[in-house]
Structure formats: C-alpha cells, structure tokens
Design brief:
mainly beta; 11 strands
C-alpha cells in the first residue's frame, strides 16, 4: 500500500502562484510514475502533470508552461509549482502514484487539495 498526503492548496488571485506538495509513504517500490490530476465540479479528472521513474515529464495541454512538476526521491515527495494561475484552474488537485508489478499497474490517490483561483 501507498499513502499520499497533499498540502499547499488554497485561495489565490488570478496571476498568482501556489505550490502543491505530496508526501508518499508505505511500499514505495516499483513506482512507475508520480503525478498530479485535477477535477473540477461536474468534470472529469484530468492529468495536470506526471513524472516517470526515469525523470520524463508530461503535462496537460492546458498547462502551457505555467506549471512545473518535480520529485525528491530522498524525501519521497512530488511537488507541483503553479504559476500564472487562472480562474479555470480552480479544482481539487489529487496526487497520484502508479506502481507496476507483474505486468499490472496500480493507482494510488491522495485525498485531494482544493485550489481556488479568484478573478
């Protein structure tokens, strides 16, 4: 099992910045990727950013250079620096870990942290 605890959400004005952090604990082996997703009310959960065990990053199209994902293997954390925030970035942000074992992938999720961007 993997436990994920997010922090850093909150209320910010448009154009501002927030930094989300996710601390992972538990069985931290065979991790394929770490990432952040978000879900706004009435919408599907979308990928914001991910980073693989090899350090490859992937971002949602809407990020457009505004967000940066980073991981600290020594501290078992993954962070998301969000700049130039827009009201449409308002959502619950979830930390995600993908483990791969015996050909199967297993997803683990944090409880989510609310990000609200005011106009």
């Amino acid at each position: 099992q993997v436990q994920l605890v997010e922090s850093g959400g909150g209320l910010v004005q448009a154009g501002g910045s927030l930094r989300l952090s996710c601390a992972a604990s538990g069985m931290l082996i065979s991790i394929k990727a770490l990432g952040w997703y978000r879900q706004a009310p009435g919408k599907q959960r979308d990928l914001v950013a991910s980073v693989t065990s090899g350090g490859l990053t992937n971002y949602g199209d809407f990020v457009k250079g505004r967000f940066t994902i980073s991981r600290d293997n020594a501290k078992n954390t993954v962070s998301l620096q969000m700049n130039s925030l827009k009201p449409e970035d308002t959502a619950v942000y979830y930390c995600n870990v993908v483990k791969e074992y015996a050909g199967y992938e297993y997803d683990y999720w944090g409880q989510g942290t609310q990000v609200t961007v005011s106009s």
